UniProtKB/TrEMBL annotation:
One BP term from GO: proteolysis
Pfam entry (one): Peptidase_M3
Lineage summary: Eukaryota, Fungi, Fungi incertae sedis, Mucoromycota, Mucoromycotina
Keyword Lipid metabolism included in the entry's annotation: no
Name under which the protein is recorded: Peptidase M3A/M3B catalytic domain-containing protein
GO molecular function ontology, one term from the record: metal ion binding
Domain Peptidase M3A/M3B catalytic: 211-657
Amino acid sequence: MPAPAAPTFHYTAEDITRVFEQACTETVKVNDEVAALTLDECTFESVIARKGRLDNWCGIISIPEFFRHVSTDKALRDAATEGSLRYEASAPLSKSESSLLSKRCTTDINSLSPENARLLEKMHLAYVRNGLLLDDEKQEEYKRINKRLAVLKTEFSKISNEESSYRLFTREELEGLPSDFIDHLPKQTDEKDGQEKHKLTMKYPDLLPVLKFAKNEHVRKEMWFANETKCPENVALLEEALSLRRQAAKILGYASHSDYVLEVRMAKNAKTVEDFLSDLRSKVTPIGTKELERLKALKCAEKEEQGQEFDGTFMAWDKMYYHQRLLESEYSVDENKIKEYFSLPQVTAGMLKIYEQVLGIRFVEVESADTWHPDVKYLEVWDAAESKDFLGHMYLDLHPRDGKFSHAAQFTLADGFENEDGSRSYPVAAMVANFTKPTNEKPSLLTHRELETYFHELGHCMHNLCSKTKWARFHGTSVEWDFVEAPSKMLENWCWSRAELQGLSGHYARKGEKIPDEMVDKLIKSKFVMAGLDNLTQNAYATFDIVVHTRDEDNFETTPLWNKMRDEITLIPGLHNTWRPASFGHLMAGYDSSYYGYMWAKVFSSDMFHSKFEKDPMSVEAGREYRKYILERGGSVDAEVLLRDFLGREPSNEAYFTELLAGTGNNAKL
Ligand SMILES: [Zn+2]
């Protein structure tokens, strides 16, 4: 078959506005028509499939929406932002529709194909979860709570964004910090002693260097304390939100807010997450305890060197500092040297080859293709394993420019789906990153961290390009939220595998020179430095998140709870006159009851990698199965089933611990 036409990117601001308007009009029209059906007229076809097709069709807004992140033209970015806000507000779910849908749910679901049945179930569930099946009084109450929650969220983030506290230090006090860093700090006169000092805010680019490098313990403590006591007003906002979420969950019939959130996740309920976290905690605590001993020994030695007495304490503001000392003294990984072996053109070619071989696909670069910027590359993606069919369109937009999205991410520009006549609409995926631009002397060189990001985001592209579902609603990365990172995380392992790393490498100036063994070994060894303690810190946040969202009690105080949990779980105490929850933004930015997801994805990505790819990361057989069982099915079945089918057994956290134990130098099985 010839390649289907690639999308075009010639849009004016008016075009963008028009596309969003079309999508709004069509959405309102379909919703009105569905709502006007009588119960007799209402079938899977007339309601569910109709709305499923509307979802498919509304994919037309994805490219205009994408302009918000990548266009160099502010007018286009503004038109896209405005259009997308209007679109979101255009289609409130209606109560009459909800009763139709619930009626449909009483019909025989077994007469539908599995993916159609899933579409019906998911749509019905969305209505239930939006409170549309409640009686009028309860629905009003539910709406009132959600309105107030939206206000609290906005206020919380406004206070966080406007936070501007700072501390002043002399140059001597900042000993240990790089001198060019100190030189660039703004200066201000300290009213207390009239001395001109360096000003440090609580923003990460100021805070982290102090916690990592400042030799003076009092300075680190002062900054840590200032950071843990910022935004005091947020405590009350958070606590009110917790109460309201609890009430809302009860109205809908859930035992807790966590149960409500997790119902549509792979984890399914709060109990599973609690067990997951406590199991992790009990297994990681012995590793963390040993690591802490190492850090304490470093502190003791440093105190001795300075002729000071060591009182045996190790506090929250010591952790990053001694972690950094350990990295420097024992692992000496030189990022700038490693970079020289990973030039962007070399890495891109190598990575695509790995994906081609493992997944059984083929990339064809088309140089003349239309894109949104001259830097952008376009590739056709074809099946090379069985059908030889076209799979989708892929774009790589890898260098920074003004007004462009400043992180790395994959953007879905179109989902794949089946058209009414049985033909397919093909997916379009774009990887956006900000790797340094090449110069006349040097190609763009990637740090190991960037290499990992590249693999990761390309992994999301593969998920979308290899997926083949009937409905756009279930395409590719449209899986349960706590599973979406696992497939990409798994693919990061290729960046920590000696043979693959060497295969990808090649010195940019000294042709044919591969990265030396010794450098690779040090790098791989450094992957797990303090992994136990870091894991426990994550665990403390995740556990706190679940505890505050499951506690069946109104108006409890969050700060004593956090302080206690931090001391116990992270093994490293802090001060109790602080209120960290006030700046735990995840809880108020849509990640409530979701923090565990970071660890969840890690555990299952380890399970997949170690059971299928560890012996041979280039295994064609495992790669094909991965594509067939995980990538191809997208969200059309539960993630738990995807995993079980791929692994051939129940998922487990064993591989994760084995890796952690080996990586942290603990050989005994726990
Ligand atoms: Zn990701």
